[in-house]
Amino acid sequence: MRKKKIIRLKVLYGVFLFILFLELLGSLGALIFGDTSAIRDAGLSNLFLVVLTTAAILSPWIVESRYKIDIPDFLEVLLLFMVFIAVVLGFMNDYYENVKGFDKFTHALSGVTISIVAFQTLYILNQSKDIAFKMGAFVMSVFAYTFAITLLVVWEFYEFFADTISYNIDASSARNMQRWQWINESLIFPQDYGLYDTMTDLWVGTVGAFVVVVVGYLLIKNKQSV
Fold first, then answer.
1. Which of 14, 43, 115, 168 is the one with CA 20 to 30 A from 3?
2. Can you tell me the distance from the alpha carbon of 161 to that of 93, in angstroms, rounded to the nearest whole number?
3. Residue 6's pLDDT band (boundaries 50, 70, 90)?
4. % of the chain at pLDDT higher than 90
């Protein structure tokens, strides 16, 4: 049974890597044959994302083989789909711009994924006989929650600096990760849309992480009481 799961996981990895290979070819084509600076810029950006995504997808394999750590299959699948949705669909295929609500869905999923990874990591460490200090359910929950929020904030830092640097290089840049170029049509929120986008991204990610840590806390407490 375990062997079949490993084969299915390898097939899934192969599918994702094949999709990335096709994206690589498209990025190189846009970079070499693009007839406008915007197309060439998109090709270069996607080329960087392909390399980054490939490294992210292969990292669980590298960690498992080098450090002899058995990462749960569900966690690998979750990470694969998170990377695929956020990078391949979101950035490379412009789902963030063209699909309404996709950005908020991705940030909520990020909060869920990061907190699950943190929880699972702490759980594995708790089971280790080499570690004398054992964490309780509450400590694990607080750590997973704060870890998720920290990474969500770091991502917003990245978006801010990416937009700022691009604008200073070329004021006509279409780089709009924080949606600062969009017009705020809200009758409730008075400031620019960029700030609204940043805060709602953090809110939905925080809510996603909170749901995970509450469920994780209850599951651990229930297991400890059995």
1. 115
2. 22
3. low
4. 20
- Say if residues 209 and 151 touch (Cβ distance below 8 Å): no
CB atoms within 10 A of CB 131: 10
193-225 and 102-127 helices cross at what angle (nearest 10)? 30
Within this chain, do residues 49 and 126 fall inside the same structural domain, yes or no? no
Q: Is there a single domain that holds both residue 127 and residue 111?
A: yes
Contacts of 224 (CB under 8 A, 6+ apart): 137
Which residues constitute the domain of residue 17?
1-93
Express each pLDDT in 114-147 by its tens digit: 999 888 888 777 776 666 667 788 888 999 999 9
**Based on the domain organization, do 36 and 6 belong to the same domain?**
yes
Which amino acid type is present at position 91? F
Q: Using CA of residue 115, residue 119, residue 121, residue 122, what is the dihedral sign?
A: positive
CA 181 to chain centre: 23
Q: Phi and psi of 179, rounded to 5°?
A: 55, 30
Domain count, the chain: 2
Q: Do 193 and 182 form a contact (C-beta atoms < 8 A)?
A: yes
